[in-house]
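Please check this today:
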Amino acid sequence: MRDDIESQLAVEFQGGDRGSFKRLVETMTRPLIAMGYRYTRNWETARDICQDTWIKVYERIHQYDPARPFKTWVLTIHRNHCLSHLRKAAVRREISTAELDCRPADSPAGDSDPSEDLHRREFWPRLRKAMTGLTESQRRVFAHVELEQIDQEEAARVLGMKYSTLRTTLHQARKRLAGILLKLEDER
């Protein structure tokens, strides 16, 4: 069995302890909503997707393999649900890649000091614009590792790619973004 608390709680829930499920939801809902928001750019939709993810987890807990990290299993389910949501034609028309929220996961959405506000108003729109110059794979890897601050090995598992492929893709994304951001800076 894994040593992390989420995996231990998942095993307890598999054994019938509903209180463990409640603790899992309390522990992981906030990051799931944040991840959903980055995909949808809508807090209500992000909450709905998160709720659907928890329903799937509840229904499929018997499929969880205790030899693997529970967090990765849930993030994979959630990511797939977010992507499924985005594939719907109506949603696809509402959201473009340029509208993705590019703040890191630990950035406050509420009040901050004026220098942070200035940085956010100037840098994040440029980063969103620059990210449109990345391939889809590069955008996904960059968003997971740099913006959502998911560990690289875990991001590779969530994205279903080899760790070495993720690292190469991340390196290419960073290099390409740096070049695009330099061009954007020169245009200012």
Observations:
- The chain has two domains: 1-95, 107-188.
- The domain at 107-188 is CATH 1.10.10.10 (Arc Repressor Mutant, subunit A).
